[in-house]
Design goal:
Elements lengths: L1 E2 L4 E2 L9 H15 L5 E4 L6 E4 L5 E3 L1 H10 L2 E4 L5 H4 L1 H17 L16 H11 L12 E6 L5 E4 L2 E4 L8 E6 L3 E6 L2 E7 L7 E2 L6 H6 L13
Parallel strand pairs: 3-6, 9-13
Antiparallel strand pairs: 1-2, 4-5, 7-10, 8-9, 10-11, 11-12
Amino acid sequence: MSLPHSNAVFVKGYPAETTDPFCDGHVSAFAFFDGIPQSILYDNTKIAVARILGVRPRVRTQSFTELQSHCLFDDKFGRPARGNERGIVRHWSERHGRAAMSKAWSDIPAATSWRGHSQTIGQRLVSDIDALMGLPVAEYEACDHVSTRATSISMVRYRSNDYSVPVAYAHHDVHVRGFVHEAIIGCDFEVIARHQRSYAKADMIFDPLHFMPLIEQKVGALDQATPLQG
């Protein structure tokens, strides 16, 4: 996220470009700047835009609508295939993005003079911060929401991976909140499982304690049960 007036930027890396990192990136940037911009300019990412109708109207995705409604900023989008309208968005993503990654793994450079401005980025950032809106009172949950059903073997599918739940919840309807680093599974307003988020494909993530009632009934399976391997 870049504030064009001061050129102050916030950069955070994620393992994938999906809804939860998109929302988490906003929340992290707002916290870093200690405020929310009154409007934000976007390229036409599918994470924010579900459909484009005509020249300007857009149908926002549910996740982006929830984020925007919670934080109360306006959005602006360029027209598809009109790079000249995206200005700072394209300039940031294609140039500053590479520069930020380079700086993250490089030594701090030395310079003998300032470039282009009489004030530093930090000094110009002060006026940017004065123009920001305050942070929301209630914290926004930067996560993906999926309603699904636990299988007969007490596993829940979320983004091509399977996560275990206690055996008592087999065949139950559940709700998954997918955060950047964690998958939280609930049933009837109760959290029934927490797992470290996996970004692999066809992975199976177990909590051995979820299967203990079955192991107690079939003690002979103790050394063969998949959830207990390792």
